[in-house]
Amino acid sequence: MTTSLPPDGEPLPHYVSATPFDPYADEQAKDGKKVFKQASQFQLMFWRFRRHRLAVASAVVLLIAYVSIVFIEFLAPYNLHTRNMDNIYAPPQRVRLFHEGKFVGPFVYGHHMTLDIKTLRRVYTDDRNNVQPLRFFCRGDAYRFWGVVESDLHLVCPSQKGDFFLLGTDRLGRDVLSRILYGARISLTIGLLGIITSFLLGIVIGGLAGYYGGVVDLFVQRVIEVLQSIPSIPLWLALAAIMPADWSPLVIYLGITFILGLLDWTGLARAVRSKLLALREEDYVLAAQLMGAGHWRIIGRHLIPGFMSHLIASATLTIPGMILGETTLSFLGLGLRPPITSWGVLLTEARTINVLALYPWLLFPVVPVIVVILAFNFLGDGLRDAADPYR
């Protein structure tokens, strides 16, 4: 083997790179990102989900909502049961920053109430000479944090002798914003408790039908068909009417959760059944059987994880149905009842056309319902797309 020399006869300089050899260097992307070929399934799903900006924004909204329910007592300006008898049906107050061209900071104007004799309606007018600066991280109404710790610290409070009703008040002078915040704790958690009940029934019953087949599958399918043939609203009414009126609010809350879970497991059971019917014929299931694995181990360790992403997407689409179910029952007066406060209970204040015409701010509890339902649906779309990153 000969070595070529330059015209002047001197050998060319020889360099050896000290960089470790990378067999995948030629597969690296130009922007320096890790190639998809080396990524795990979770990384592929995360990258795919991150590209769905609407789903990411929805996830942030839901994360903020569920974290905030832990600190509801601190976030609410007033206690849940505080009544302001001088401000019955008071309209929402506008937060301002400037008074007569000067920066004052966040404040509201005080108001005067007069009674319209012809319509018997309370009319509130702003008092421009009564500037009421808002206080932050302040002492206000006393409360028991999660029913345990005594405190009176709030994020925002009205001035010492003023009022602050960002979303107005109801027929008893209670702050609508505070009651919406307290209602979020019930309405958001009832979806989670209901989905646990629904998933336990759906996965277990659907898993048995899909894995064993035969008589078990036939029986489960007939039961599902019978339950799905019953109209949902009359069934809700009948099950809710079973609960005695003298039950404690906590028992009624748990009862409504259990009812919602009982009504929603059939669709998930069919989805689990169809998935298991396809997966049980795979080679790795046969290998597990030959190695002596039991039926429950095969179902729980090999089959269910195979479509866990589908279950997660189903959960995000089922929870909104639970929230709407509780809101519907409570709105009809057959679900949760005072003193429990949920978004459905708050909407019972706006059941008459008279109230809607005179005090439309009592419809504000429907806004978080819509926002949460849309956020769950968008999040479900993003998770469903991310579950199949190779598509």
Automatic annotation (TrEMBL):
<dbReference type="InterPro" id="IPR000515">
    <property type="entry name" value="MetI-like"/>
</dbReference>
<protein>
    <submittedName>
        <fullName>ABC transporter permease</fullName>
    </submittedName>
</protein>
<dbReference type="InterPro" id="IPR025966">
    <property type="entry name" value="OppC_N"/>
</dbReference>
<comment type="similarity">
    <text>Belongs to the binding-protein-dependent transport system permease family.</text>
</comment>
<feature type="transmembrane region" description="Helical">
    <location>
        <begin position="311"/>
        <end position="336"/>
    </location>
</feature>
<feature type="transmembrane region" description="Helical">
    <location>
        <begin position="186"/>
        <end position="211"/>
    </location>
</feature>
<feature type="domain" description="ABC transmembrane type-1">
    <location>
        <begin position="184"/>
        <end position="380"/>
    </location>
</feature>
<keyword id="KW-1133">Transmembrane helix</keyword>
<feature type="transmembrane region" description="Helical">
    <location>
        <begin position="250"/>
        <end position="272"/>
    </location>
</feature>
<keyword id="KW-0472">Membrane</keyword>
<dbReference type="Pfam" id="PF00528">
    <property type="entry name" value="BPD_transp_1"/>
</dbReference>
<feature type="transmembrane region" description="Helical">
    <location>
        <begin position="356"/>
        <end position="379"/>
    </location>
</feature>
<keyword id="KW-0812">Transmembrane</keyword>
<dbReference type="InterPro" id="IPR035906">
    <property type="entry name" value="MetI-like_sf"/>
</dbReference>
<keyword id="KW-0813">Transport</keyword>
<feature type="transmembrane region" description="Helical">
    <location>
        <begin position="54"/>
        <end position="76"/>
    </location>
</feature>
<dbReference type="Pfam" id="PF12911">
    <property type="entry name" value="OppC_N"/>
</dbReference>
